[in-house]
Amino acid sequence: MASLGQIVFWSMTILIILFSAIIILVLALTFTRQSPEVTSFNISPVGNISQDVLLSCILLQKNDQEQITRVSVTWEKKGQQGFVYQYKNGHPEFSDQNEAFQGRAELFPSLLAEGNASLLLRNVRMTDEGLYTCSIDSSNGGGKINIQLRAAAYTTPTFTFSEGTLDAQASRWFPEPNVTWYNHVHKVLEARTSLFQNSAGIFSVASMLQPINRSEVYTFQIGNKLVTAVSQAKVGDFDVSVRTYYTFSTASPSPASTSLLILILIYCICCLI
Ligand SMILES: *[C@@H]1O[C@H](CO)[C@@H](O)[C@H](O)[C@H]1NC(C)=O
Ligand SMILES: *[C@@H]1O[C@H](CO)[C@@H](O)[C@H](O)[C@H]1NC(C)=O
Ligand SMILES: *[C@@H]1O[C@H](CO)[C@@H](O)[C@H](O)[C@H]1NC(C)=O
Ligand SMILES: *[C@@H]1O[C@H](CO)[C@@H](O)[C@H](O)[C@H]1NC(C)=O
């Protein structure tokens, strides 16, 4: 007769094998959904409204010495009729292009032979947000990749100092930004901030910090869920010196990777019991 210890041991073993099998299955599904032959340096770019944005799409070649002799590329957007851009038989094919992208989308034809099928989208609009698919078919292989474009407006804040007040202005922000001032020990400071929204929905921000101490560094942070700009401003005798850097949020994890995480968690809990 099997002892309780043996029963527990074997049921644990079976559970672990079962969960391993499920995890392998989920992994296989996750990785076969998109071909590994086509990749992108940024699958969740943030376009600055009214500026250009690059949607990166690259063919990974097994042998990059070999020139690509035949290539066709299509860019499509989920939920939209026609193509964003289509390239075949050695030239762009505009007959089935979606109107919204006419005159605003282009590839770099001279880079196609290297497997670079990145799309330059000019004059980004809010309505350009969405899921894009780049498909490459060539003499050296092919595949597709999805890219999630988000649209935001962001401008580098400018600073002025007069009569004991440090003034920050940021002229174009979207979605609605949140503003915070910090001192050099990262303590939040009180400031007077006003937001204006223009008819196109873009915000402009003015914020006044007072009183301030000369030659101390103040941090002005402005951001929303897509973009954050952090400026460090120091009031000198003649001007305000500023350093600004940006951070961009990455896209939320896909449902497949979320379910994978949950499975791994369950698996770990089971192993611990
Ligand atoms: C592809 O081309 C674009 C546009 O010139 C460039 O910005 C990007 O770095 C290129 N990518 C690679 C991997 O060469
Ligand atoms: C974003 O675009 C605006 C024009 O709409 C431009 O003034 C601004 O400098 C751009 N932001 C950055 C950080 O390049
Ligand atoms: C704005 O930022 C401050 C400080 O980071 C935070 O406490 C606050 O919750 C934020 N507000 C919104 C609406 O995100
Ligand atoms: C300026 O310095 C004084 C004394 O060090 C301090 O109490 C005050 O909080 C500082 N003001 C700001 C805005 O940092």
Quick one: how many beta strands?
A: 20
Q: What share of residues are in beta strands?
A: 35-45%
Query: What separation lies between the terminal Cα atoms?
Result: 24 Å
Q: Into how many domains do the coordinates divide?
A: 3
Based on Cα principal axes, name the global outline. flat
Radius of gyration: 26 Å
Number of helices: 3
The residue ranges in which pLDDT falls below 50 over 5 or more consecutive positions are none
Q: What structural class results from the helix and strand content? A: alpha+beta
Helix amount, in percent? 10-25%
Q: Provide the CATH topology of the largest domain.
A: Immunoglobulin-like
The CATH class of the largest domain turns out to be Mainly Beta
The CATH H-level superfamily of the largest domain is Immunoglobulins
CATH architecture of the largest domain: Sandwich
**Could you tell me the mean pLDDT?**
88
Strand order of the largest sheet: 2-11-10-5-6-7
| Largest sheet features | 6 strands, mixed
Give an account of the 3D structure.
This protein has helices at residues 4-33, 109-112, 255-272, and strands at 38-39, 46-48, 53-55, 58-59, 71-77, 85-88, 91-92, 105-106, 119-121, 130-138, 141-152, 158-162, 165-173, 178-182, 188-189, 192-197, 203-209, 217-223, 227-235, 240-248. The chain is of the alpha+beta class and 273 residues long. It has a six-stranded mixed β-sheet with strand order 2-11-10-5-6-7, with no helix packed on it. Strands 15-14-18-19-20 form a five-stranded antiparallel β-sheet, with no helix packed on it. Strands 12-13-17-16 form a four-stranded antiparallel β-sheet, with no helix packed on it. β5 and β6 form a beta hairpin. It folds into three domains: 1-30; 38-152, Sandwich (Immunoglobulin-like), CATH 2.60.40; 158-248, Immunoglobulins (Immunoglobulin-like, Sandwich). The longest helix has 30 residues, at 4-33. α1 runs antiparallel to α3 (255-272). The site of one 2-acetamido-2-deoxy-beta-D-glucopyranose (NAG) has 2 residues, from β14.
